[in-house]
Every structure is written in structure tokens, then in C-alpha cells.
Amino acid sequence: MKKIFISLVSLLLFTSCVLHVYSFTSVNYNNDRISITTNLVDAQKENSPLNYIWIYDKRSETDNHHGVKILSLTIKIVDSKNKEYLIKNNPDDDGNIFLYKQGVIITDDFKAYIGKVQLDDGTIIDIPPLSFRKNVYVESYNPVTDTINAGARTKRLFSGTVEDYKKQKK
Predict the structure, then answer these.
(1) Helix (H) or strand (E) holding 37
(2) Contact predicate 10/139, CB 8 Å
(3) DSSP summary character for residue 28
(4) What share of the chain has pLDDT > 90, as a percent?
């Protein structure tokens, strides 16, 4: 009986997980009409490449989508080693710039030169060159104790740039 109790207590104490979620965030642009986000191929892996950049109209809702058209035919991406990539843009992709599908592998900070976009109400917005930094969100949770104590919240350990996270870990 004592072994079972010790095993159960050990399970509760040592069954915790640490979740890392990586993303790229624009550090030099804020607009009240559009938002610019990114998606990685696998957001839980630090070296996962950038899948696409998405520009969306902030007026969009679940049942009322507002389209965004990127007017430039090519988008220039400059990686952290100053290597330039020209990405072909399909104006029908509704604000998506697909890098990974075109064979471009970006795993570190980069700059994007997008140019002008047009909202579905005709508004044209000129986006300046954007700098993106890789960020990480880290949280710790314990599935066993979180299930037992339904009011328990996961513990956020860090939210910021990958560079700052690595400095903190040292």
C-alpha cells in the first residue's frame, strides 16, 4: 500500500509538461485597420520555418469576412544574414504570403517588404518595411493536477524574444 501511495504522489509531482510556442512578431508596425501575423510550419519547434505571413482586416468577424488584397506582385524578404528572397504573390490569396510553399526557409529574424494592400472597401494602405523577431511563449502545466483542481491555471514562465529567453536560461 505504501508503494502505491508513493507512486501516486510521484506521478502527481513529476508529471508536468513545459510547452513552447514560437512565432514571429512585427516589431515596428501597428495599424488600426489591419493586423499582420505569421504562421510557422510547427509552432512548437524553435527551428521550424516560417510557413506564411497573413495580413487581415481587423473588421473581420467569424460570420463577416473582409478581404485583403496585396497589390505587389512580388514580396521581398531579407533574412538575418541579409540574403534576399523574392516571393511571388497571388492577389487571390486574401492577404496570405506563402513562403514555405515556394521553397523559402526562414527560421530567424527577418524583414519583409510588402508594399501596398487594398481592403475590400477600397482603402489602400502602404505598409512600410517590416522587421520580424522570433518570439517564444513558455508555460508549464501538469495534466494530472490541472484535472484534479479544475480552477488551477497553467503557469506562464516566459513570453518574449527567443534571444531574451536564451539569456534568461543561462
Answers:
(1) strand 34-40
(2) no
(3) S
(4) 59
- Sequential DSSP letters for 124-167: EEEEPPEEEEEEEEEEEE-HHHHHHSTT--PEEEEEEEHHHHHH
Bridge partners of 138, per DSSP, are 20, 158
Residue ranges, the chain, pLDDT below 50? none
Separation of alpha carbons 160 and 168, rounded Å:
11
Residue in the block written with cell 514555405: 100
What count of other Cβ atoms lies within 10 Å of the Cβ of residue 142? 19
> What whole-number distance in Å separates Cα of residue 121 and Cα of residue 162?
38
Q: What is the largest CA-CA distance in the chain?
A: 73
Average pLDDT across the chain, whole number: 86
- For residue 29, give the nearest of 119, 125, 97 by alpha carbon: 125
Bridging pattern class, strands 110-113 and 115-119: unpaired
The Cα–Cα gap between 91 and 68 comes to 9
Cell 467569424, residue located? 62
In sequence order, what are the beta bridge partners of 126? 116
Interval 69-79: pLDDT, tens = 999 999 999 99
